[in-house]
Design brief:
Oligomer: single chain
Mean pLDDT: 97
Low-confidence stretches: none
Number of helices: 11
Bound molecules: nicotinamide-adenine-dinucleotide
CATH topology: Rossmann fold
Radius of gyration: 19 Å
Largest sheet: 7 strands, parallel
Number of domains: 1
Distance between the termini: 39 Å
CATH class: Alpha Beta
Shape: globular
Strand order of the largest sheet: 3-2-1-4-5-6-11
């Protein structure tokens, strides 16, 4: 297969590229290497992919409708995996226009590019944060989504809705995968696993919301990648599917896992959670198991061991 993969240089995108190339697919990668975090990390993420002749890279912005459509049209693409986005929740608080531009407009451009080129299948990166604050756990795909807590999840809901419009009007197969807190090697430096590890090894104090009494359904990147690849292989019409581990981890326990790995003690203070943060995320993964054969195998202790090995190998200790 030949896959157009946007956001290819990012944390998840680079792992998806490696997995597709490893099984013999061709990958046409798109990324604008923005400086939300150090672009040098993104270039390093692509070390393996760059050594594969079946990988091509287009340094391009998904907001550029014509350029994206041209790339879709020129390359005989079988499916689009659209991961490019502004991905931070808190960063979105005061940047709604930017998030709408990249995440909504960029997604419409990917859908348009696919439609014009006759590409029938689009896989889209959505998020657990579309569920907002809810007492109904675990989160099921049928739960209502009308109450996003920040611009970021609002733009992801909009992407899911635009996917439905294209499915209805043009028959595009559209699978929105709602990722739950992804972690692992190449992890984003703005996310908790990286930040906590960095603070612990540097003996810096950090803030833990609600004294660590919050729960996140941490999901190892290889499990997420297996779900994405399965979604590439199975056009399903229109579906929204949770990809989580289905096992929320208390953040206090998460810190203890990192303490055990690093052999050092964490120093933290507690603060109330900001209004962007729900107290728990918890995926019901029945649908992913049924439709995608998804089976997230990695417990957080094993996944964080892999993360820690990468963190040290990259000289970040
Ligand atoms: N990491 C998680 O826990 C998580 C959870 C839920 C959803 N997601 C979603 O998964 C996807 C990948 O997330 P990630 O954690 O790998 O983030 P990331 O920031 O590492 O990767 C995103 C990539 O997209 C690129 N990009 C951003 N704007 C672009 C634009 N305008 N044009 C072209 N490229 C652009 C960035 O340069 C980056 O390489 C995103 O859509 C994100 O919203 C991630």
């Amino acid at each position: 297969m030949r896959i157009l993969l946007t956001g290819v240089a990012g944390f998840i995108g680079s792992h998806v590229a490696d997995a597709l190339l490893a099984r013999g697919d061709e990958v046409v990668g798109v990324d604008n290497f923005n400086d939300y975090y150090d672009p040098a990390r993104k270039r390093a993420n692509l070390r393996r992919a760059n050594s594969d002749p079946r990988f091509t890279l287009h340094v391009m912005d998904v907001r550029d409708e014509d350029a994206l459509a041209r790339t879709c049209g020129e390359s005989q693409i079988d499916a689009v995996v659209h991961l490019a986005a502004m991905a931070g929740v808190r960063y979105s608080i005061s940047r709604a226009p930017l998030y709408v531009d990249v995440n909504v407009r960029g997604t419409v451009n990917a859908l348009e590019g696919a439609r014009k080129a006759g590409i029938g299948h689009v896989v889209f990166a959505s998020t657990s944060s579309v569920y907002g604050r809810t007492d109904r756990i675990p989160f099921h795909e049928d739960h209502p989504l009308g109450r996003p807590l920040a611009p970021y999840p609002a733009t992801k809901i909009a992407g899911e809705l635009m996917g439905h419009a294209y499915h209805n009007l043009f028959g595009t197969s559209f699978t929105a995968l709602r990722f739950f807190s992804v972690y692992g090697p190449r992890g984003r430096p703005d996310m908790m696993p990286y930040r906590i590890t960095d603070c612990i090894v540097q003996d810096r104090e950090f803030v833990l919301y609600e004294g660590g009494e919050m729960y996140r359904d941490w999901t190892y990147v290889d499990d997420i990648v297996a779900g994405i690849v399965a979604a590439v292989d199975r056009p399903l019409g229109y579906e929204c599917i949770n990809l989580g581990r289905g096992e929320p981890v208390q953040m206090g326990r998460f810190v203890r896992v990192v303490e055990a790995l690093t052999g050092r003690e964490a120093r933290f203070t507690s603060s109330p959670a900001p209004p962007t943060e729900p107290p728990i995320t918890y995926a019901d993964i029945t649908k992913a198991r049924t439709l995608l054969g998804y089976d997230p195998l990695t417990p957080v202790t094993d996944g964080m061991r892999q993360f820690w090995a990468w963190f040290q190998a990259e000289g970040r200790h």
